[in-house]
Design goal:
By secondary structure, the protein is mainly beta.
Length: 117
């Protein structure tokens, strides 16, 4: 399984970005698709996840600003990030779990999001 993330970049506070992550080589049913992030000196944390049935869960810090969505036909997950803040600056990683994957699933290569004030 390979995950290709894109859409990161440098923006000013208050602006928006949309991340995409396309999965290829998937041989079993996809269960959860999500986004995590890791800021310098901090642990990786969950940003948002969407289940196979469409249920979503968000970190408290991004609720109301970020929206996660998935396109099952394209094995792709998106993260729409609005009203970005400096504290959203991090490397964002997409994650995919299938019915047969190990507990932590598969990870993309990461895409940098930098928010300047």
């Amino acid at each position: 399984v390979q995950l290709q993330a894109s859409g990161g970049g440098l923006v000013q506070a208050g602006e928006s970005l949309r991340l995409s992550c396309a999965a290829s080589g998937v041989r079993s049913r996809i269960r959860d698709m999500g986004w995590y992030r890791q800021a310098p000196g901090k642990q990786r944390e969950l940003v948002a996840v969407v289940t196979r049935d469409g249920f979503t869960n968000y970190a408290d810090s991004v609720k109301g600003r970020f929206t996660i969505a998935r396109d099952n036909a394209k094995n792709t997950v998106y993260l729409q990030m609005n009203s970005l803040k400096r504290e959203d600056t991090a490397v964002y990683y997409c994650n995919l779990k299938t019915d047969n994957s190990r507990l932590d699933g598969y990870w993309g290569q990461g895409t940098q999001v930098t928010v300047s004030s």
